[in-house]
Amino acid sequence: MTVTPERADPSSHVLAVPVGDEQMCEMVSQFLAGGLAAGERVSYFDDDTADAVLARLCDDGVDVTEPLRTGQFQLVPQEFTRAALLAPMDELGGVLEHNMQSAIDDGWNGLRFTGQMNHGLTREGGQRLDEYDQVLDDAMRGRPVHGLCIYDHARYPDDLIATMRRLHAVEIESPPVYDDSLLRITESAPDRIRLAGEVDHVNRPLMRRVIGRYLDRIARGDVDNDVLSVDLASLRFCDVASAVSVVHAAEELPVTLRLRLDNVRPGIARLLDRCGAAFAPQLEMKVRDRTALCTADALALAAGGAG
Questions:
Q1: Is 254 helix (H, G, I), strand (E, B) or coil?
Q2: Burial class (CB in 10 A: 0-12, 13-18, 19+), 93
Q3: 287: phi > 0 → left, psi -120 to 50 → alpha, else beta; which?
Q4: For residue 69, what is the enclosing H or E element?
Q5: Domain named STAS: which ranges (predicted)?
Q6: Is residue 33 part of a domain?
Q7: Which contiguous run of DSSP H or E holds residue 63?
Q8: Would you say residue 1 lies in a domain?
Q9: pLDDT (tens digit, 9 = 90+) per residue, 160-179?
Q10: 61-83 as b/e, with b when 16 or more CB fall inside 10 Å?
């Protein structure tokens, strides 16, 4: 007799506890981009964070214009997100099942969703987000659905976060090289790092030390490359002293090594030029040429596509 092995559950229901909004946007962008690449319908439930998420998707080179038009990417407005969180618990499973079936009927390979749930905390008597989460889990199981639940310390109490960590079998993490909630530095390769957020007098010394550490590795030959690439797509602000510090770091390099700044925002590129970047032979700079959608424009694109 041949025994047919039990099929693996096609769903996933994971937790993330970002330390700040930079990490939150990084994780959400990766999650949504993965769904778009897999041919899934992806939904983001907005509660005043959609602009930041759309900006991060743009920073990551993810063009959501066509997915918004075709309905593959659904940006759920804040009022609908809040209404869903305050709806009776026994309606939630049916709503999710409807959305899952709709994604399949429309030709997508599954459904992927995430968003902000903190408005549920304002519910009279206190929202039982643990019960809410269990309803989600039951409705998703056995279906091609992937959910990312975000519980950050800025929006949720520590005791609730501890409860949610116990309820989720998988917690995804993205450890940084440095993160002070204002500036986040991550490594994508031994010779490539990324800065996201803002650099000023508070974190400037740490930023310079991190860049110096990676340059030292290259100079020692620990990395099979003579260029350190620093992705600045998500760096929104840099003060003058920090820009000067980066230029000086390049000027101090041996002639065989280079520091390359990728995806630099135009405003920061102009600042670096004023601080002498053009006169540092070991410094290369590539200015980004893409602009993020705002929430209103994204919703208008989606409405136009639906029409």
A1: coil
A2: middle
A3: beta
A4: helix 65-70
A5: 193-276
A6: yes
A7: none
A8: no
A9: 899 999 999 999 999 999 99
A10: ebebeebbeebbbbbbbbeebbe
- Residue 126: is its pLDDT beyond 50? no
CB 194 within 8 A of CB 235: no
Measured CA to CA, the distance from residue 182 to residue 41 in angstroms comes to 32
Is 293 inside any structural domain?
no
Residues 145 and 20 in one domain: yes
State pLDDT tens for residues 277-306.
Answer: 999 999 999 999 889 999 999 999 999 876
On whether residue 104 sits in a domain, the answer given is yes
Here the CATH number for the domain that contains residue 150 is 3.40.50.300
Total count of domains within the chain: 2
> Could you tell me if 151 and 183 lie in one domain?
no
List the structure tokens of 208.
């310079």
Expressed in percent and rounded to 5, the helix, strand and coil fractions of the chain are 45, 20, 35
pTM of the shown model: 0.91
Distance of CA 34 to the CA centre of its chain: 11
Q: Is 50 exceeded by the pLDDT of residue 2?
A: no
Residues 167 and 227 in one domain: no
Domain that holds residue 270: 178-287
